[in-house]
Structure formats: structure tokens, C-alpha cells
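[audit] Reproducing an earlier prediction to check determinism. Same input, same settings, fresh worker. If the C-alpha cells differ from the archived copy the diff job will pick it up downstream; this log only records the rerun itself.
[audit] input (199 residues):
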Amino acid sequence: MTTSTARDLIAVLQTTLDGKILDADGGSDWVDSWADGLELLPRVEGFVLGGGMFSGYEQFWTTMLEDPAAAAEMLGRDRYARETAYAEVAAQTEHLVLSTTLADVTWPSARIVRSIEEIRTFKHSGLGTVYVVGGPTLITSLLDAGLLDELRLIVHPILAGGGRNLTGVFGSPLHLELVAAAPAAGGRVTLAYRLPRAG
């Protein structure tokens, strides 16, 4: 990672080998745990996510932290230690929720931002790592605005065939710099790419 005078915005996404984050039915059964992304990052100073996913995200991680029995029922297994750890970090760390429609958020660690420019201001108001949780519409907007510093992928050895892509449609093609690649459990591979023009 290069020396920065601003926060690094890093997106971590779990994807199939053919670049899908959801299958044609809207599922992602290949994902073992949504906590895995956080383990690919240094200590985070904030989270950024889109308004469309915030409600489910808040409910999921609140349940992980506050109701182990409900979490186990939701997951179909006992929660992992790393899921509890993620929930603890999320409860204590600032979340910027990009939305033009949400009126309010009740999660104490969250606040609504109305524009990409507010995220730009946040990026340049400090140092550290910010976890861009997603979804694809937000990732695409950050790519278009030149605000995403890195894209990290957990690639699962599955071909989905159809479904939702990593990103939406954005401007010019982007050529990324591979900065890390490593095998992981279950035939997965983790990849880290640096964006050329984050700013």
C-alpha cells in the first residue's frame, strides 16, 4: 500500500470465478461468512455502504452481537468467533450510509450522507482504512468518482452462470495493479488490486 495523505477506501467483495456476487436467484450460498472480508483489512476507521443494503446489514450484525440463538437460527449453525468480532467492530465504528431516500438511521454508529462528495470530504479528513462494504451501485459510483483505492476479492471456485455482477456499468475501462494474491481455504483465492487514480 502506498503512503497516503487521506483515508484508504477499500472494497472487499466475495465473488464467484465468473464475477458474480449473487446468483440468478439472488442467493450467495458459496459465502461461508460475511465476516471474512474484514479479516483481509488492517484495523478499520470506518465503513461505507449504500442505503439499499443498510437495513439488512444493521439487522444482521446486531443479531450477531445481541442474540446468539437468533443468529444461529439465521445462519443454520452457531456463529463464528470472527462474526462476533465483526459485530463488535461494527457497533463501535462509524458507518457512512449513502442514500438520498433514507430519512434516518437508528444505529448509533451510523450516519446518512447524501452525496459522493460527502464521502470525498470524509476520505480527505483523516487517515486510516475505510471498509467499503457495498453494494455494486455504490462501488460503481466510487469507481466513477475516483475514490476507491483498492478492490479486494474473495474468489470462490464456483461458476454461477448468471446473476449480479461485481459492479454496474461505469465510464472508461480501468486497469488495476495486482498487489497481492493468496490461496485460501476451500479452494478460494484472495486477490488485492490497487486502483490507478484514487483521489
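[audit] rerun output stored. Observation attached for the diff report: The mean pLDDT is 91.
[audit] end
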